[in-house]
Structures are given as C-alpha cells and as structure tokens.
Amino acid sequence: MKKTFPVSQSLIQKSKIQDPKIRFSFEHFDSSDAEVCPPEFHPLYTQTLMERLKALSSWTLREFMNSHSKSIRAHPHNWEKTARPEGFAHLNEQLKSIPAWQFQLSKNEHGRVHGFFIGDTFYIIWLDKNHKLYP
C-alpha cells in the first residue's frame, strides 16, 4: 500500500526564487472523468499540447497569473460556474483547497488545461479538449 503524506504549507507558498519559470507535472492527472478528459484526441492535439507547455515553460509564474492574453485565457476557476462545482473531487482536502487555474491550448480549438499551482509547478489535472468544464 502506497503511503501518503500531507502537503506542507511551505510547498504551497510561492517559490523563494524571485520570478521562477513555470514547470508542469502530471502527478495528479485524472483521466477517469471522460467528459472533461476524453480518452481520444484529435491527431494534432498532442503536438498542440506539447507546444503550449513548451511555450509556457518560458513564462514566469507572475507572467502567467497576470496574463490578459486572449491566446492563453489563463484564469483561476470559480467552481460554482462550472459543470463540476465539487472541483477536483478525487484529490485530498488539502489539495482541493488550492485555487484551480485553467489555460487554453490554442484560440477556439483544442480546449483547455485545468490544474493548480504549488510553487512554480502547475499540476495538470484535466485535459478538457472539448471545453466541457465551463458549459
């Protein structure tokens, strides 16, 4: 049985690096909700996803969180306005309490990526290719 440990509050606080670059993790990725994370993808989806992650990896946390770019559409979630008002229900209470964010892969195509930050790492939870989270 895998042992789990609570997330330290110090990990949730912003990185001590003045303006860290964004990193990505799939540690908490959830493919069990087929509506917001469908199992099949358009042939160009994976390439588009990787290109967007690569581009955002050159951004700082501050640039991402303060972006008003219509090509990224990065913003925190208001769970009450989504199709999943319970949020990332599969996570433990401590992780569920962290504000969730989204960004889009490309303008009007390929949907959104949903997750949360701990420090400068964005934990990808759902790949919402059909933009089902916000109906």
Question: What can you tell me about this protein's structure?
Answer:
There is one protein chain. The protein is of the alpha+beta class. It has a single domain, classed as YaeB-like fold (2-Layer Sandwich). Strands 1-5-4-3-2 form a five-stranded mixed sheet.
Named CATH topology: YaeB-like fold
The proportion of residues in beta strands is 15-25%
Sequence of strands across the biggest β-sheet: 1-5-4-3-2
**Total helical elements:** 4
- Low-pLDDT parts are 1-12
The number of strands is 5
How is the biggest beta sheet arranged?
5 strands, mixed
Average of the residue pLDDT scores: 86
CATH architecture classification name: 2-Layer Sandwich
* Secondary-structure class: alpha+beta
Alpha-carbon distance between the two ends? 38 Å
Q: What is the H-and-E element order? A: HEHHEHEEE
Q: Would you state the CATH class? A: Alpha Beta
Number of domains: 1
Helix content percent band: 10-25%
Which of globular, elongated, flat, extended, rod-shaped describes the shape?
globular
Radius of gyration: 15 Å
Tell me briefly what this model is:
By secondary structure, the protein is of the alpha+beta class.
